[in-house]
Amino acid sequence: MRFPFLGLWYNKLMMFLGAFDSAALLVL
Fold it and tell me: Do residues 7 and 1 lie in contact, with contact meaning Cβ atoms separated by under 8 Å?
């Protein structure tokens, strides 16, 4: 890959969104 750090950033973003989604489900 030309920009391997983009994969790491994307993975962190997906983990953040997953945690946010789980928290939203717990609140609702």
Answer: yes
Return d(Cα 13, Cα 18) in angstroms, integer: 8
Q: pLDDT for 6-23, tens place per residue?
A: 888 888 999 999 888 888
What is the model's pTM?
A: 0.49
DSSP string over 1-28: ---HHHHHHHHHHHHHHHHHHHHHHHH-
